[in-house]
Amino acid sequence: MSYRPLALVTGASSGIGAAYAKLLAHEGHDLWLVARRGDRLHALAGELASLGAAARVDVRDLSHPEDLIALSDSIRSEPGLEVLVHNAGFGVRGEVGEADSVKLLSMATVHVDATIALTSAAVPAMRERGRGAIVVVASIAGRLVGSGSATYCATKAFQISYTRSLAREVSWKGVSVQALCPGYTRTEFHDTPEYAHWNRDSVPRWLWTTAQEVAEASWKRRKREVCVPGWGNRLVWWLAAVPMISWFREQFRRRKQGR
Ligand SMILES: NC(=O)c1ccc[n+]([C@@H]2O[C@H](COP(=O)([O-])OP(=O)(O)OC[C@H]3O[C@@H](n4cnc5c(N)ncnc54)[C@H](OP(=O)(O)O)[C@@H]3O)[C@@H](O)[C@H]2O)c1
Q: Which of these is catalytic: 3, 20, 152, 184?
């Protein structure tokens, strides 16, 4: 039996995480699947088995510090881990003071604390071995400033900044590190009550990508510190650096809300 390197994917129960797990299985990896919905993870593990990949299911809520610590400890005791994709995440809408602050803090734990904890646990063995890949799924939102999603934008900006710094620390030791920054992606992300009154059709079709496209773009360019899938999103990424564009965007949003 040939050797299959081990890859851990958080948020593997749907969307980008599930697509990434399938891609890695196709690429010859065994998988370690993490999320809260165990039934989904077991169904995916069955699918991966048909691709010849063994999959371990680990049901964890990464907004709970005790689960985060337990998962970090398991990673430390698994020196063979070759790939870490920290993809779990979600959005909370609403202006500061109006959005549910308990949900905001859970989101910050999954985006910020989990990024620190899981990479800190995975890096030492990868650095020692001189080989490995880390992908942190941030968002193009981390490059933007937007009222109505202050905590989401800020926690995604943290992921980009942290991951890029980590890349400078370990890439010269053979470990590739990438901040993956998708734009609008067709997944379950927008299916929550948070987005019930949000119209997907308000976003031009050329800005949407699929989870599979996102995973493929990321893995193909895994040695790149930042990956923004889709030409439309790359355009937004560069325009976001122009202050006038942010100003116009905000004016447009306020006018739409009648403010
Ligand atoms: N879709 C987009 O437009 C878009 C754009 C830019 C960036 N992103 C980012 O892409 C990543 C993946 O999102 P997606 O679009 O694939 O959405 P999705 O289909 O809703 O998937 C989110 C995944 O995160 C997991 N998750 C959420 N909270 C968790 C928690 N507390 N503990 C463990 N796992 C948790 C979910 O699993 P369980 O519910 O089973 O726990 C699910 O597997 C996120 O980080 C998101 O911010 C998405």
A: 152
